[in-house]
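$ ./design --mode recover --in tokens.txt
reading tokens...
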């Protein structure tokens, strides 16, 4: 689980996110959002 969280944090940082906690909550609410961040949707 820590590996997945670190992957998510790394992707958010590469995307220019400054508030990681808020971005993780926002991505947890919408399942399409993380895929869009990775360029899959």
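writing sequence...
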């Amino acid at each position: 689980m820590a590996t997945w969280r670190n992957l998510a944090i790394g992707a958010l940082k590469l995307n220019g996110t400054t508030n990681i906690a808020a971005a993780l909550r926002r991505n947890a609410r919408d399942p399409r959002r993380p895929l869009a961040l990775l360029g899959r949707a």
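exit 0
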